[in-house]
Design a protein that fits this description.
Length: 310
């Protein structure tokens, strides 16, 4: 038997979250399976990197749940295209609420996997959600730190927040909402002279047939950026993150700074386990390229097998 894919929905506050549940081969309703919630990168949909990891982990005997965040993809929530750390954390915790209603999920064996910004969100969720018994991250980053770094000038953050305040004022007076693209198209990148390898790899994944999703808009609500600037994914890790934690990074240090963020996370985690470096892999290679994803999954399986079994 092959892996079964079920389209599901669950509630997260007032939002209806669109998800995908993957069931292992030879699935039997009467068995109690370990389960893993997968939190994907910022702006990503459930079918992209989360779906790739969900498929591979289901092949190793896990029930896996991927989802579109509130305000994005096929999930509900207004205003559209908002990237909200608080909402994403609640989406992750609400996924557990859904899983514990399923008779074939062992509620004492639920793990959490976060990829890229979803790694930061996963850590934030795990710190306050004890129903997660083990945590793994792949190229984890703190989206708050990433946005605070975006302004190259010394006053970059101050300018961004001032601009956001002006935009909110304009919208309060009837102006249309402003949106920003997450990434340029390949043609726009070429015209702009973008040469950074990590950025080009991201564009190749998100903006071409390699990994593009029909339900991903590539748009970000501009006033929501203030929520990201004021967010710190790893704040209180040393005090509140108690679960066994595996951290996986790519060996190529690029401009995403996920290696540095992940190393800081691992060093601060009270119950840290392995720090795994996938040699030769750029940040975005670990989204979908089998030669890098497969060894990452092998490490995740070893970690979850060791901490989600009774």
């Amino acid at each position: 038997m092959s892996i079964e894919l079920r389209r599901i929905t669950y509630k997260s506050h007032h939002h209806l979250i669109a998800g995908q549940l993957r069931l292992p081969a030879d699935f039997k309703e009467g068995n109690g399976y370990p389960a893993i919630v997968i939190s994907g990168p910022g702006s990503s949909t459930k079918e992209q990197a989360p779906g790739i990891y969900g498929e591979k982990l289901a092949a190793r005997g896990y029930v896996t749940l991927t989802f579109d965040p509130s305000y994005q993809g096929e999930s509900t929530g207004e205003p559209r295209d908002l990237e909200s750390p608080a909402a994403r954390i609640e989406d992750i915790r609400s996924a557990v609420d859904f899983l514990v209603t399923l008779p074939f999920v062992d509620e004492d064996c639920i793990g959490l996997l976060g990829i890229c910004a979803g790694g930061g969100y996963a850590i934030s969720a795990a710190m306050i959600e004890r129903r997660f018994k083990a945590v793994g991250t792949v190229v984890a980053s703190d989206i708050g730190t990433s946005f605070r770094r975006m302004g190259n000038a010394a006053d970059g953050v101050e300018k961004l927040l001032t601009d956001i305040g002006r935009q909110r004022t304009a919208q309060a007076r009837g102006a249309a909402a402003k949106r920003e693209p997450w990434l340029p198209t390949p043609e726009q990148a070429k015209a702009a002279g973008i040469e950074d390898p990590s950025t080009l790899n991201a564009i190749d994944f998100y903006m071409t047939e390699r990994g593009a999703s029909q339900t991903r808009t590539n748009q970000r609500l501009a006033i929501g950026d203030a929520l990201l600037v004021g967010y710190d994914a790893f704040h209180l890790v040393g005090e509140l993150l108690v679960q066994p934690t595996l951290v996986i990074v790519g060996g190529k240090l690029g401009t995403t700074f996920s290696y540095e963020a992940s190393k800081s996370l691992w060093e601060r985690a009270r119950n840290r386990k392995d720090f795994v470096v996938i040699e030769g892999a750029d940040h975005y290679d670990l989204y979908d390229k089998p030669q890098y994803v497969d060894p990452a999954v092998a490490s995740l399986v070893a970690h979850f097998d060791g901490h989600l079994s009774k």
